[in-house]
Amino acid sequence: MLHGSIGPFEYFVFVAGANVSNTYFYEEAGPNIRFFSRGNEITLSPEGVHYKGTGGSFCEYMFGVEKPFKDLIKKEVLNRLVMFGAFLDETERLIFTNDTGGSEAFHRLFLLGHAVKNYYFFVSSDDKSEPRKRQRQILRSAGKFLKRTDLIAEDKEAELVNGLVKELNEPRSTVFAFKLVHSENLEYYRKFQTFYEDKRMLLPAEEAHLNAVAMKYHIDDYQQERMKIDSMYRHRENKSIVDEYRDILLDIAYKETAEHSELAKLHRLRTLSIRNNIPGILFDTLDELLLKDKDVPAIDEPEYLKEARAILENLFFKSPSLKRHIIREDIAKLIMAKHIAHSHSDMGFERVLLDIGRACDEFARENNDFGIFEELSSIITYFDRYDNIHTALSRIAFMEHLELTENSLRSLVGNKKEFDALDKDLFKNIFVKELLANKYITAFGKKRIKVLNEGIGKVLRGDASLRDLVLELYKISEEERVYKYIRASLKERLRELYTSLNVKEEMMRIRKEIEAELIREGTAWEVRENLFDKVLLDLKKESYYLNHLLPVILRDKDLALREDFLNNSGLDRFYIEGLEKNYLKDNGFSSVILASVREDQFSGAGGGERI
Description:
The structure is a single chain. By secondary structure, the chain is α+β, with helices and mostly antiparallel strands. The chain has helices at residues 20-23, 69-72, 106-112, 131-148, 157-168, 183-197, 204-217, 221-234, 236-253, 260-275, 280-291, 303-317, 320-343, 348-367, 372-398, 406-422, 426-437, 443-461, 466-497, 504-521, 525-556, 559-568, 573-586, 591-598, and strands at residues 2-6, 9-17, 25-29, 32-37, 40-44, 48-52, 55-60, 79-83, 86-88, 94-96, 102-105, 117-124, 174-182. A six-stranded antiparallel β-sheet has the order 1-2-13-12-7-8, with helices on both faces.
């Protein structure tokens, strides 16, 4: 292996195959270094890469980048492969030519390929075929390996090159592989991974550190975003959920309309992503990649989008006095339109914004007046506030053990104040009411949202401080933690002792044991005393559901009975769904039954069908 660097770009050279010692030639001329062997060459210069011969370039696909649909639909395709002198025609058919020379600037290489590491290779041999035939032959032999191997992600270059040699199966040929690493992007990428790993979020100090790295190396916003999204996707707890979401979208992409069950699964995964602090941008990126070219029947634009379009057109193409007049009274309607679109997973509102953006661009060029973009930005600021509020409240509602600080709530209070200036009921109507009506929100999640809404009002009126609000929310989280501790401890003891929930003396004894454990933890008496009775009652409800109602629901396909219990028992829907899954598994019911129960339909599964 040969290692060196040209400015911020490191290179690693690997050679394997026949007669390595006799075919490995390179020369240095000033800042350039040239590698060559039997009609093939690659030159690295401060400007970029210059190449000629039989071979190509490859890299790992970053999450969210544009890629051929044929690659997108194949889970096993991990990498991008480009052969020298080849291109895709209009029908996406691969065409080979004899012109295998070319160059790529480092900037474009790390922009179009991977942001951190990219590879080139050429095959040195005594084959006399014309270049296009030789390139087709190499692709046929080793293309599948290069596109599907995970050795690139694992940085196992020796195994990668040896694998390439093996796939070529040409005893007299030699493979040259060149790994190019952008050291500045690599530092940013690794820093973000380190900061994101544990909490799946960045603290203000960590954000500042990353910004400093980006400014030091002049890393543009687009590259930063690519590296962040790719890192977030590859987090071990994010990837499985995002991949499942992708698979459902792939099924939808082949059809004109989505089925109810598919939409229900997508909604459930979105909700689960909030509980697990998975960024929504990962799902939005997949929606854009897989559904943007979807051929669906044309439909009339909903009224709320028509109204939004009319307001935006008036904002940007009427007199200044009219703009000032309608901004304050109509901006709330725009926010509501965005909210309705978001609630229905409708990209129509974003399309309206794109249309207005294009119109503004045309207006600015024709009239040489770019002030219109400042007006557009002032409107979009409110949409950014909407996104920030929605994300913050969703995390508070659905995430357990969320650490809140005065700083984290200060932004929320400020955004609510801006919304109140537009319409005093806007915040409550589009955020609070909808979250409280979400069937997957837990009892403690509801409590947090109610306390938060009332607390922000007190803060804005000067009747409470941010510190008071943080303390109230902390108490709810502590109550939730103790509740789950008592439930887990009580269920474990009941399994070990085979004790009935109705044996009062035994319950008193167990209660004292758990109280003693909580005292050792330093938990306040007034919390645990109230919660033990609640846990006991909830466990009785749980037992009644599993032993009496669920068998009837499965036998009679009585989904109304299930919904009635879920809506009135006070038990959390996610928790009950977990119990149902275990019950059906333990009792040998088909997995089809499980899906039918959770999606509120039996779809021909049969209430008592067994495996």
